[in-house]
């Protein structure tokens, strides 16, 4: 058996088509959505991600003011940029490209951001909104995974979902999201991690297994229930090479699986723009 592939590209295209329609509706009433980007330092990969997001912003008709701070910028310089964007009514969303240089405190920068402009959905206020089920920007990768499952009409409600990893950006918010009472979620969610020595006992019974550990090749065929849906979200980079959590051979056991490249990644970027257009709608209602 070879699994059906679940590429993220078509999911992202459908989300972005909806974002484009909503951006058009905003412009029709005189509002141009604004997504500001902040880059600190000269990391090549980060600069590349910013370029991709700026091109996408231009394609969608968003304004995208950009601030590039030098690698030796201080915490105060970064906070000044963030508070400036917080106060700017033409800016509805702000993205601080991660990672930032090691001498700076990313969490403090995130907490300085207006939660309503937090397009990454990672501000503690937004994590709290997610926890209690209030509307607000959702963390992009978890929201992208929910959208991917919905796009491919993979039932989630009532099914056994196991997430390998409880990290703050992925496993933890994803568990909250997929356990919510909503037709595209509503799952029986189990989260396993290094504290669960025999985690394969849980992954082997998962109808949907989501790898969110960031440990290359950690999920092998013997960890997967035959016929399960496998979503590979965890990755590590070795230079420019991407090393996924899910071993290639899992394709022989799963019924459906995300491709090694172009799975969850494109949906993450699409969710950033969905958060941005929603922020513009909220701010100008
Ligand atoms: N595709 C995307 O767009 C996207 C976006 C965001 C993140 N990611 C990727 O997702 C991964 C997770 O991100 P994160 O920020 O949540 O990472 P993180 O904070 O490092 O969390 C990793 C989690 O995996 C668990 N884990 C690590 N090694 C394990 C092992 N040998 N056995 C069992 N559990 C293990 C850890 O357990 P403990 O808690 O016990 O340490 C932890 O809960 C990373 O690879 C990241 O690159 C991808």
From TrEMBL:
Pfam families named among the record's database cross-references: THF_DHG_CYH, THF_DHG_CYH_C
Keywords in alphabetical order: Amino-acid biosynthesis, Histidine biosynthesis, Hydrolase, Methionine biosynthesis, Multifunctional enzyme, NADP, One-carbon metabolism, Oxidoreductase, Purine biosynthesis
Reactions it catalyzes: (6R)-5,10-methylene-5,6,7,8-tetrahydrofolate + NADP(+) = (6R)-5,10-methenyltetrahydrofolate + NADPH; (6R)-5,10-methenyltetrahydrofolate + H2O = (6R)-10-formyltetrahydrofolate + H(+)
Region forming the signal peptide: none
Stretches assigned to the Tetrahydrofolate dehydrogenase/cyclohydrolase catalytic domain: 7-120
Pathway assigned to this chain's UniProt record: One-carbon metabolism; tetrahydrofolate interconversion
Binding site for NADP(+): 165-167, 235
All copies of domain Tetrahydrofolate dehydrogenase/cyclohydrolase NAD(P)-binding, residue ranges: 139-283
Enzyme Commission number: 1.5.1.5, 3.5.4.9
Annotated HAMAP family: THF_DHG_CYH
Subunit structure: Homodimer.
Protein purpose: Catalyzes the oxidation of 5,10-methylenetetrahydrofolate to 5,10-methenyltetrahydrofolate and then the hydrolysis of 5,10-methenyltetrahydrofolate to 10-formyltetrahydrofolate.
Family as reported in the entry's similarity comment: Belongs to the tetrahydrofolate dehydrogenase/cyclohydrolase family.
Protein name per UniProt: Bifunctional protein FolD
């Amino acid at each position: 058996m070879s699994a059906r592939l679940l590429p993220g590209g078509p999911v992202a295209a459908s989300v972005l088509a909806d974002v484009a329609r909503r951006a058009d509706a905003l412009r029709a009433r005189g509002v141009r959505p604004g997504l500001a980007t902040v880059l600190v330092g000269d990391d090549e990969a980060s600069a590349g991600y910013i370029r991709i997001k700026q091109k996408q912003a231009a394609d969608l008709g968003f304004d995208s003011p950009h601030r590039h701070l030098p690698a030796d910028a201080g915490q105060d310089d970064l906070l000044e940029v963030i508070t400036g964007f917080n106060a700017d009514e033409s800016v509805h969303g702000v993205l601080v490209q991660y990672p930032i240089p090691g001498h700076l405190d990313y969490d403090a920068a995130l907490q300085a951001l207006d939660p309503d402009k937090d397009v990454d959905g990672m501000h503690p206020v937004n994590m709290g909104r997610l926890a209690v089920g209030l509307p607000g920007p959702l963390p992009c990768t978890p929201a992208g995974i929910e959208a991917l499952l919905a796009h491919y009409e993979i039932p989630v409600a009532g099914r056994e979902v196991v997430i390998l990893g409880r990290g703050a950006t992925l496993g933890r918010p994803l568990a909250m999201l997929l356990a919510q009472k909503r037709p595209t979620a509503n799952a029986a969610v189990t989260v396993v991690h290094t504290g669960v020595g025999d985690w394969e006992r849980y992954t082997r019974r998962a109808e949907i297994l989501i790898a969110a550990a960031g440990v290359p090749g950690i999920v092998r065929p013997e960890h997967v229930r035959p016929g399960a849906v496998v979503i590979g979200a965890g990755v590590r980079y070795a230079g420019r090479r991407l090393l996924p959590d899910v071993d290639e051979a899992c394709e022989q056991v799963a019924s459906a699986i995300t491709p090694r490249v172009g799975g969850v990644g494109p949906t993450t970027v699409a969710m950033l723009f969905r958060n941005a257009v929603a922020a513009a709608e909220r701010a100008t209602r």
